[in-house]
Amino acid sequence: MREVKVTSLEKIEATNGEVRLLVNSGDLAMVFPQDLWESVLKEGSFPSGPTSREVQELETIKRQLGEHARENSFATILEDVPLGGPLDGRSVQQFDLVLRPAGLLAVTTGYVFLPVVTPEHVARLGVSLKEDDFVEQAYLVGAVADRRTLAAGDEGLKVLSVRGRRCSASRFELAPELWQVLSEKLGWKNVEPVAPGGPLGADKNYGREG
Q1: CB-CB contact of 125 with 157 (8 Å)
Q2: Which of 53, 43, 65 is nearest to 162 (CA)?
């Protein structure tokens, strides 16, 4: 394997479906196909901060979930439910929403909404969830969550990212009220599933957005 150390970046050009990086004082050109370049950006360990549009969509999901629950006479509709323990600087870890549809087989679901979800958030909430006898499953919904974070989810605690419309579960495994809001209110056609259990996760073959 031949290695070339990049010491400077002179210019980035995007033309004809390719991204061209001129590096090392222009002595070396690195050429990426557009889809490969986008994949490299997507796989970054630390996601860039959410855009205002992504944050707005996150807030819309939260608002629409509450409205959907009230319109359909859910048995439980609670906001700001304490769990105990710090999360993202909060003095008390809490669910932003706790919802339970009417019906004998209904499941009580807790939702936490954050601009950026990290593996640390998943770990902390996972510990608290195991000690909670009220909420049966939970979702950490972020404007941004990278693949490492998505892969940290499990059967009881799922992670959903507005950016990329990705989740640690397929759309068929989502809480019915959540998928109804995403598909009917926001127009999502699918989510890209990222399987839990690995450092970067492995995509399930449920299909991509579109």
Answers
A1: yes
A2: 53
Residue 42 neighbours by CB under 8 Å, 6+ apart: 147, 164
Q: Label the pairing between strands 28-33 and 76-82.
A: unpaired
**12, 8, 18: which is closest to 38 by C-alpha?**
18
pLDDT in tens, 27-81: 888 888 877 766 665 555 445 678 888 999 999 999 999 999 999 999 999 999 8
Residue 131, amino acid: E
| Model pTM score | 0.70
Residue 29 and residue 11: Cα distance in Å, rounded?
A: 10
